[in-house]
Amino acid sequence: MRLCGECTECCTGTLTGEVQGHKFDVTAPCFFLEDGKCNIYANRPDDPCKNYSCMWINNEEIPDFMRPDLSNVVLTQLNINGIYYIEAREAARKSMTTSILSNVIMYAFHTNQNLVYHVSGQFYWIGEPKFMVEMNKKSKEIILKEI
User: Fold this and answer.
1) 127 in any annotated domain
2) Total tally of structural domains belonging to the chain
3) Which end of the chain is more exposed for a tag (fewer CB within 10 A), N or C?
């Protein structure tokens, strides 16, 4: 199993959560991220820190260059109504290159997995018909919430 090493992209605001009463999201990184390092790493909480499942750490088929701090993309395995998919989220305040996006899409196709990818504040999805139906429903719910 791989280790995070110098990578802290899940803490920069790419993902959302709350640690010891401090929320983090795209507007603010984790309160405990200091000089690019977690200053409570040894005592970090289970949720969300230890429980977060980074695909790069957990899947050695994903090449080293896809480590989130090198690729500017955080990969997470998720599910919607029991249908599994990969979520590729652009790192906070960084851009995913077309080369990296191409690698993510090709990985999803070669491993026969559904994919949601976030680029420049927009999200897109590709996959099996059942997944596409679920994502279309979800996108309508998101639009209704914003109105």
Assistant:
1) yes
2) 1
3) C
